[in-house]
Protein: Electron transfer flavoprotein subunit alpha
Amino acid sequence: VEEEVDEGEKQLREMLARYRGVWVFIEQYDGEAAKVSWELLGTGAELAKSLGVELSAVIIGHKVEHLCDEAFGYGAHKAITLDAPVFANYRTKPYTDAICHLISKHRPEIILMGATGQGRDLAGAVATIVKTGLTADCTGLGIDDKRNLMQTRPAFGGNIMATIMCDRFRPQMSTVRPHVMPMPEFQVGRTGEVVREQYDLREEDVLVKVIEVLSDKGGKDIDIAGAEIIVSGGRGLMNKENFAMLQELADELGGVVGASRSAVDAGWMPHSRQVGQTGKTVRPKIYVACGISGAIQHLVGMQDSDVVIAINRDPEAPIFQVATYGIVGDLFQIVPSIIRKVRSL
Ligand code: FAD
Structure:
């Protein structure tokens, strides 16, 4: 029996060893890459370095060749492209089939995608077909001493951080939330190898047709995820009208207004402004939390901000544990006095 176990383990190790390299899927719309893809190249570069393997950017689309140079600038050694009209707009089936084809040909050990609508859809479909594990919504990635990917993500409603491994299957797949990983520095003039692949797929064979693409660029609401200064309000604001005061402060500071889930659930702010586990992950230079208690589900969305200023009348509020500066007191007195002070500068 022991011999059989050893033989099984040996075969497993041999199978795992046939997979080499780190891939980052470059999500793009109309030839413009989603920022999370570049963030993931930064993380992918670190993982590839500790494994001693190459980092490849996988670029699928139509007329997307220019993204190769961008990918090299952000740290990729290689760009694997599939460029054809059938890939012009994202559709689950063609992209899934194409990536599965590339995986069986190149056998990467790790594949990272953004935890965006597109990345979540694609990663799940790919993992199902290639029969491997997928850890969604990771907030941290590392390598253990057996070359396995350690994937950290909030679990049980955000009450614990779980580290998940996929140590018996390859590739190891993760989706990672936008803005969790730092943006790597762009290295001008950095180059790499372009591998142009082909995948035979005719438009007639794709059942889903894209009739029209509606863009919300420049649309109704701003994207708090990319903001450098965020003034957020929680249940302590008491009502919708009081958010005008936070907007005033945000305007003075050149920032935007965010909110806790309680404020969003109460209908005081739209969901697009929600910070936290079920909202946006933000990483601003300054995050001002007003009347927010600091539940773990809120903290996971903002605790990587450079400076956190918390205003809360409860000195025991958990938000103070992550605050750079804490002000204990009534926000209805403190916020107007900060506005006055900023105006007088
Ligand atoms: P409260 O916890 O009620 O805190 C209000 C705070 O305001 C208190 O600390 C109080 O002392 C202070 N306060 C009141 N009046 C004043 C005043 N006049 N001056 C100063 N301070 C005052 N939450 C999120 O935010 N984002 C998420 O994405 C999210 N996802 C979740 C996902 C799951 C699965 C679950 C279970 C929960 C999630 N939550 C999320 C909810 C989270 O657990 C908390 O309930 C929520 O963050 C609390 O919001 P709050 O801090 O505004 O309200």
